[in-house]
């Protein structure tokens, strides 16, 4: 309206018609019956395509023929052993209060903990490590706490681990079951009898689980790599020694155990120092295994082309590397002015080519390692809030001198003097560097300062 | 699955089960084609048979003695394959613009027929009788046409060499790389590739037969191993025809010298090794520093 005034335009003619128009529109818009206007407006003021709730139902719900009152009445629960009377609101229909047990009583389940007599104890259940008193206490707690062993372990008077308690409980129950059963066959189907509790396995399992849970991201990655390689070793062993089938279960058994040892090893000693040997050992064994299996398969062919053989060997050697690494290897080869596929693939040339590729892979791995180490070093430095500009700059300079054909990634390694630099890391940073908590602290403080 | 034992699925008795791929117990196959890149499940059977026993798999009972295989000995035959194409110039028509020859020759122009029995060139389906068989050296095929296409070259070897054929693929090249340059009637467009055919575990008879032929790179035999003397070399005239030393296209053949490539590879390796050594030094320096940090910030 003001705009029209300003512009000097005449106001809309026929103000009378103006009044009439919006009103019928509004009426037709106000569709809802039984829903308040505001609620209807939530749908956007339009009727939904599909009626979700029949609008007429909404108001009609309270049945007109019944008289409903709410009363504050006492009740008892069958779940309780005493006669405690509590009060609650009850929906009374036509003056008749509801009957029946307290509706939640049915959820009061408990475990059937076996009760043994003293006789039975003497006969079947004596144990060098457990006294009768302790066993009684254990069973009492088990009953009170419904076999929640963590709670039981906390409340047990003498110190016992959860696994020990479980072991005692399950072996006692099992022994009683078997003793009481008229014939062994009848109880053989009982889960306790079929699958006895294995303490050592449980302890082992929980230890491994906690190890896995407490691994850092790096360790997780390392483990994944080692596992993949162990798998490959097992598979290639099967391929190469296919004739000696009886040995297969043995080798594959050894595989996971040595993998586990490697993982355990990695945890107890600091990660960085273990990375190098495990990283070195694992790839070399897997590469040797790959080579062996490739050679074996080539021999199977009886006749093949030298180029085909080279392709297979290259594939085997780079099997542990991702696509990105392979591209970097090829880029390096190009920078060195070496043909990606040899022009004269004689035996000697192919061998040299393969060795060169392997060496380039080693080179790239070392570069990555160096990055890791430098990142670690910087995190240590920042964690102590100290600046050591001398050392990183030195290594950076050394790296710079070798800039003949080094790919770009290496240049990220050096610049880390001072906390301010960290903010610039952003998306351009090579993603492989682990972000330790020490990095995050200074950033957070800066954010708060704002 | 190679997962740590304690985290793996185990049945009620704590036994761990592994899936073991069972080898195919069916009849042994000889030489699966080189184009297949899988290690099929029948491999272990063949290796078992070859490693454990010296029995023949080639179904010729009378040659059992001669068919003994030698492990870790390989024979290689260096070959060059490719094509030469001449533009027909004035005589070129729309469908016959070039005259080309596709061939397989010994790398040093020696006669390949000591090893190769016949070569089959599979041409584009638009050619009449696209499957061309060449029964004798020189193994080549000449045709005229206008288009470039992939030719499948299959080499069949003599029975004592290998029963399975070997496939090569060559993309016929008619037009020069430099498209803007003039096309010459005199100078052909030549594209050649060097490769080596490797025969693993050659039979004694094979070794004996080829021991005096220059087309074949003869391996060093294990100590104390003697071959029966070979059959007398076929007469000169017969042998001469099969080699390509006087081939009309000889002047266009490319030279393949491994020396250059070896030199280049050696230089590259040296560079890489030097760089590796430097990196190792740097890493040990930083390791030392990090150790200091760790010991100083003990919590």
Automatic annotation (TrEMBL), chain A:
Key words, A-Z: Chromatin regulator, Nucleus, Transcription, Transcription regulation
Region called Disordered, residue ranges: 1-36, 377-450
Protein location: Nucleus
GO cellular component: NuA4 histone acetyltransferase complex; nucleus
Primary location recorded for the protein, binned into one broad class: nucleus
SUPFAM superfamilies, per database record: Homeodomain-like
Domain Myb-like: 126-175
Biased composition (Basic and acidic residues): 18-36
Basic residues bias spans: 438-450
A single BP term in Gene Ontology: chromatin remodeling
Transmembrane segments: none
InterPro entries, sorted: DAMP1_SANT-like, DMAP1, Homeodomain-like_sf, SANT/Myb, Swc4/Dmap1
Pfam families in UniProt: DMAP1, SANT_DAMP1_like
Protein name: SWR1-complex protein 4
Organism: Theobroma cacao (Cacao)
Gene that specifies this protein: LOC18613747
From TrEMBL, chain B:
UniProt cross-references to InterPro entries, sorted A to Z: YEAST_sf, YEATS, YEATS_dom
Biased composition (Basic and acidic residues): 59-69
One GO cellular component, as annotated: NuA4 histone acetyltransferase complex
One GO term of the biological process aspect: chromatin remodeling
Record domain YEATS: where: 69-213
Presence of the UniProt keyword Lyase in the record: no
Major localization class: nucleus
GO molecular function: histone binding
Gene3D superfamilies the UniProt entry points to: YEATS domain
Pfam families, A to Z: YEATS (PF03366)
Location of the protein in the cell: Nucleus
Keywords, sorted A to Z: Nucleus, Transcription, Transcription regulation
Name the UniProt record assigns to this protein: YEATS family protein isoform 1
Organism (species): Theobroma cacao (Cacao)
């Amino acid at each position: 309206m003001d705009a029209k005034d300003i512009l000097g335009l005449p106001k809309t003619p026929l103000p009378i018609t103006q009044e009439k128009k919006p009103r019928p529109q509004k009426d037709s818009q106000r569709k809802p019956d039984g829903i308040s206007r505001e609620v209807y407006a939530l749908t956007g003021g339009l009727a939904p395509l599909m009626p979700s709730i029949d609008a007429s139902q909404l108001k009609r719900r309270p049945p007109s023929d019944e008289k409903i009152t709410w009363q504050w009445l006492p009740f008892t629960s069958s779940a309780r052993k005493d006669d405690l009377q509590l009060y609650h609101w009850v929906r009374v229909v036509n003056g008749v209060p509801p009957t029946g047990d307290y509706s939640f009583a049915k959820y009061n389940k408990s475990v059937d903990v076996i009760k043994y007599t003293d006789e039975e104890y003497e006969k079947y259940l004596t144990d060098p490590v457990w006294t009768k008193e302790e066993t009684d206490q254990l069973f009492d707690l088990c009953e009170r706490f419904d076999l929640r062993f963590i709670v039981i372990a906390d409340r047990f008077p003498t110190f016992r681990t959860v696994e020990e308690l479980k072991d005692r409980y399950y072996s006692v129950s099992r022994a009683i079951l078997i003793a009481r059963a008229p014939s062994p066959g009848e109880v053989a189907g009982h889960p306790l009898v079929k699958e006895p509790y294995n303490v050592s396995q449980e302890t082992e399992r929980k230890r491994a689980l906690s190890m896995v849970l407490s691994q850092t991201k790096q360790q997780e990655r390392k483990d994944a790599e080692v596992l993949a390689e162990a798998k490959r070793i097992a598979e290639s062993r099967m391929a190469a020694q296919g004739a000696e089938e009886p040995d297969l279960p043995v080798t594959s058994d050894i595989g996971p155990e040595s993998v586990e040892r490697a993982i355990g090893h990695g945890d107890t000693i600091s990660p960085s120092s273990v990375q190098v040997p495990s990283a070195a050992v694992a790839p070399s064994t897997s590469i040797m295994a790959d080579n062996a299996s490739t050679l074996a398969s080539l021999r199977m062919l009886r006749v093949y082309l030298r180029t085909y053989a080279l392709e297979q060997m290259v594939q085997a050697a780079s099997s542990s590397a991702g696509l990105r690494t392979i591209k970097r290897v090829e880029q390096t080869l190009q920078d060195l002015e070496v043909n990606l596929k040899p022009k004269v693939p004689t035996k000697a040339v192919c061998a040299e080519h393969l060795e060169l590729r392997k060496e380039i892979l080693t080179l790239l791995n070392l570069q990555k390692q160096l990055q890791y180490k430098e990142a670690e070093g910087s995190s240590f430095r920042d964690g102590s809030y100290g600046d050591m500009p001398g050392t990183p700059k030195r290594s950076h300079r050394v790296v710079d001198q070798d800039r003949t054909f080094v790919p770009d990634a290496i240049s990220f390694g050096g610049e880390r003097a001072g906390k301010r630099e960290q903010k610039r890391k952003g998306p351009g940073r090579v993603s492989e560097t682990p972000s330790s908590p020490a990095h995050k602290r200074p950033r957070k403080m800066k954010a708060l300062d704002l | 699955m190679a997962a740590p034992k304690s985290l793996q699925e185990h049945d009620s008795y704590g036994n761990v089960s592994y899936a073991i791929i069972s080898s195919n117990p069916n009849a042994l196959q000889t030489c699966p084609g080189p184009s297949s890149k899988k290690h099929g499940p029948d491999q272990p059977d063949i290796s078992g048979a070859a490693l454990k026993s010296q029995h023949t798999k080639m179904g010729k009972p009378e040659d059992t003695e001669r068919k003994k295989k030698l492990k870790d000995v390989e024979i290689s035959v260096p070959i060059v394959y490719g094509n030469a194409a001449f533009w027909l110039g004035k005589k070129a028509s729309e469908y016959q613009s070039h005259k080309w020859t596709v061939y397989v020759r010994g790398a040093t122009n020696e006669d390949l027929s000591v090893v190769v029995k016949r070569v089959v060139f599979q041409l584009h389906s638009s050619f009449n009788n696209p499957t061309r068989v060449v029964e004798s050296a020189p193994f080549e095929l000449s045709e005229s046409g206008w288009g470039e296409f992939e030719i499948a070259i299959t080499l069949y070897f003599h029975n004592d060499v290998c029963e399975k054929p070997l496939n090569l693929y060559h993309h016929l090249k008619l037009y020069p790389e430099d498209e803007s340059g003039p096309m010459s009637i005199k100078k052909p467009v030549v594209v050649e590739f060097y490769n080596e055919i490797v025969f693993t575990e050659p039979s004694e008879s094979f070794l004996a037969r080829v021991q005096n032929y220059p087309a074949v790179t003869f391996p060093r035999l294990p100590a104390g191993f003697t071959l029966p003397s070979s059959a007398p070399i076929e007469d000169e005239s017969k042998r001469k025809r099969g080699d390509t030393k006087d081939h009309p296209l000889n002047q266009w053949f490319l030279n393949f010298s491994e020396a250059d490539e070896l030199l280049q590879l050696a230089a590259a390796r040296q560079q890489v090794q030097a760089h590796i050594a430097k990196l190792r030094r740097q890493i040990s320096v930083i390791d030392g520093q990090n150790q200091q940090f760790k010991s100083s910030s003990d919590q």
